Amino acid sequence: MTELTSLLYPITVFVLAVLVGFEVISKVPATLHTPLMSGANSIHGIVLVGGMFIAATANDPIGYLIAFVAMVFGAANVVGGYVVTDRMLQMFRKKPAAAKAGADGGSGAGKAQG
Amino acid sequence: MTYENVYPFVWLAWVAGAACFILGLHYMNSPASARNGNRLSAAGMAIAVGATAFLLVFQPMDNAALTWAIIIVGFAVGGAAGLITARTVPMTAMPQLVSIFNAVGGGAAALVAIQDFLTHGQGGGANVSTTLFVVLGVVIGSVTFSGSLIASGKLQGVVSGKPILFPGSRLLTVVLGLIALFGTLGLVFSATGMVKLDPMVADLVLLAIIGSALVFGVTMVLPIGGADMPVVISLLNAFTGTAAAMAGFVIDNPVLIIAGALVGASGGILTKLMADAMNRSILNIMVGGFGGGDHAAGGVAAGAGGSVRAIGADDAAIQLAYAERVIIVPGYGLAVAQAQHACRELGELLEERGVDVKYAIHPVAGRMPGHMNVLLAEANVPYPQLKEMDEINPEFDRADVVLVVGANDVTNPAARRPGNPVSGMPILDVDHARSIIVIKRSMGRGYAGIDNELYANPKTGMLFADAKEGLAQLTAAVKAL
After folding, report:
1. pLDDT for res A113
2. Cβ contact B115–A113 (<8 Å)
3. Are the C-beta atoms of residues B136 and A87 closer than 8 Å to each other?
4. pTM (predicted TM-score)
C-alpha cells in the first residue's frame, strides 16, 4: 500500500488545481473564450518538460526518436500557442485603431459606447 | 552542486511556473488585462522549462551530447513551426489551429507516457499506480491526437463536415474501447504481479492499446456534424489537459499536474457552456449523426407560420440610418462568408451618422467558443460594443432595428415553447425589437432543421443575399442617403 500512499500528494494537488481552474475560468467573459482556449492550449504545452525528461532517460534509438517527436510537438504547442494568443488579444481594443482612415473623427468620437 | 541539492529549488521554480499559469488565467477575466495575463503565463512557461533544463545538467545520462541535441534541435524545429503558423494563420482558421495544438499536445503527452513505460515498464520495474497513469496518459493522449486531427480536417474542409457513419462504425468504436480497457486491465494486473506478462508481451499489449486508442479517436469524431465542432474542440481541449496531468503523475512533476488540471477544468467548463448554448447534452453530441451544417431538411411543414416579407437594400438602409439604436446579430453564416469586415464597415458608417450600434453575440456564434468576438475584433470592432447574450437581451426591447446576419436558430422564438427541436435553447430576444432585418440567402432552415418563426413576424423584413454581398449593398445604400 505504500506506493498508493505516495500518490496521495499528487492527487491532492490535482484535485485542488481543478477546483482553482473552475473558479478562475468561470470568471472569463464569453468575449474572450477563444483566446482563453488558445491560452489554455499553450499551457498544456508544458508536456515539453516531460519531453525533456524522457530525452534525458532515453537509452536506445526508439527512445531518442520518441523524445525528439515529443520535443517537436511540445515546442510547437508552446511557442505557437502563446504567439497566436498574443496576436488575438492585441486585436481587442477599446477604440478602433487610429491607423484607420478616421474619416469623420469628430462625430465618431463623440458617439460613445453607452 | 548535485542533482539532489538542485532538485528542491527546481521544484520551487515549477511551483512558481504553475502560479504564473493560474494568475495568467485570472487576468483573462477582462480584455484590458488579458494580454498581460497571457504574457505572465508565457513567463511561467519559460521559468518551468528553464528550471528543468538546469536540473538536467546535473542528471547522469547515457549519452549527454545526444540528449541535449535532441532537446535543442527538437525545440528549435517545433518552435519555428509553431511560430510561423501562429504568425500567418488567418483568424477564421483559429479553430483548426487550436485543434492542431490539441493534437500535438495530446500526442506529446502520450509519447512521454509511452517512453516512460518502455524504460521502466517491463520486468516489474513499474508499480501499479504508475502503470495505471501511464496507460491512461497513453489512451487519452492518443485519442486526443487522432481525434483532434480529424476535427481539424473537418474544420478545414479536408474531411467532410457532414457526420460520417459507415455500417458497423458504432460497433467498431465499442470493440476498440473494449480492447483499450482489457489491455489496461492486463497491464495493471501484470504490475501487481498477479499475472506474469513477458516484457515483450507487455510491449505488444501497449502497442494494441495505442492502436485502438488512435482509431477510436477517429471513429469518435467522424460521426459528429460540423456545427457541433465548438463542443468537440472544447472537449478535446479538456482531454489534452487531462493527458498532460496523467503524464505529470507518471514523471511525478507538479507543474504538469497543475497545468493539466487547469486546462482540463477550462475545457470542461467550455464544453458544458457550449453544449448548454446548443441545448444538447454532451452524450447526444458524441453519439453524433445529427445535422451536418447546411443540409436541406426533409420537406416537412414548408410554409408553416404565415407569409414572409422581402425587403430591398434601400428600404433596409433607410431604417438603419434613421434609427437611434441598432443591434447587429452576427452568426455562423457571417463567419462562413468572411463578412466580418463588411459588417464592421456598415457598423462604423452608422455610428458616424449618430446611430448607437451594438453587436449581440450568442455563445455558439462562429466555429469555436468566442470565435465571433475574435473575428469582429480583428475587423476592428471595439470590444465594448460586443455584448454577451445575457447583457444584450434586455436591450432588444429598446432597439429600433435589429440586423440579423447569418444567424438562424439562435433567434427562433419557438425556443420559448416546449415541443420542438430548439425548445429550451437560450436565444437572443430579437423579436422584441421594433423592427427586424434579416440578411439571408434563402429560406433554408438552420441546423435544427425547423422554420424560424422570426422570419414570419410582421416586423421582419428579409433581405435575400449572401452575407457579404448584402452588407455591401446596405453600406452603399446608407452612403447614398
Report:
1. 38
2. no
3. no
4. 0.87
Q: Which of B409, B429, B431, B451 is catalytic?
A: B409
8 Å CB contact between A77 and B281: no
More confident residue, A69 or B186: A69
**pLDDT over 90 (residue B239):** yes
Interface test with B, best of A23, A27, A46 (most B CBs within 10 A): A46
**Cα Dmax for chain B:** 85
Determine whether the interchain pair B115/A27 forms a contact, defined as Cβ–Cβ distance below 8 Å.
no
Which stretch of DSSP H or E encloses residue B127?
Answer: none
Q: Can you list the positions of beta strands (E) in B304-440?
A: 325-330, 356-361, 386-388, 401-405, 435-440
Q: Which of A85, A97, A22, A88 is nearest to B272 (CA)?
A: A22
Per-window interface: B 286-345 vs A, CB < 8 A: none
Assess B354–A contact: CB distance below 8 Å, yes or no. yes
Query: In chain B, which residues have their Cβ closer than 8 Å to the Cβ of A76?
Result: 78-79, 81-82, 85, 101, 104
User: Do the Cβ atoms of B115 and A63 come within 8 Å?
Assistant: yes
User: Do the Cβ atoms of B262 and A73 come within 8 Å?
Assistant: no
How close is the nearest chain A Cα to the Cα of B349, in Å? 9
Helices B64-88, B94-116: crossing angle, 10 deg rounding: 170
**Which ipTM score applies to this complex?**
0.87
Question: Residues of chain B with pLDDT > 70: what percent?
Answer: 94
Q: Tens digits of per-residue pLDDT, A49-83?
A: 999 999 999 989 999 999 999 999 999 999 999 99
A53 vs B: CB within 8 A: yes
**Separation between Cα atoms, residue B5 and residue B12, nearest integer Å:** 12
CB contact, 8 Å: A2 with chain B?
A: no
- If one counts every other C-beta atom within 10 angstroms of the C-beta of residue B426, the result is 16
Residues listed for chain B: 481
CA pair distance A52, B380, nearest whole angstrom? 41
Is residue B409 annotated as part of the catalytic site, yes or no?
yes
For chain A, how many residues are written? 114
pLDDT reported for residue B365:
83
Q: Is the pLDDT of residue B237 over 50?
A: yes
Residue A1, class by beta-carbon neighbours within 10 Å (0-12 exposed, 13-18 middle, 19+ buried)?
A: exposed
**Per residue in B318-368, pLDDT tens?**
999 999 999 999 987 888 788 989 999 999 999 999 999 999 999 888 788
Q: Give how far B383 is from chain A: nearest CA, Å.
A: 6
Helix (H) or strand (E) holding B338: none
A48 to chain B, minimum CA–CA distance in Å?
8
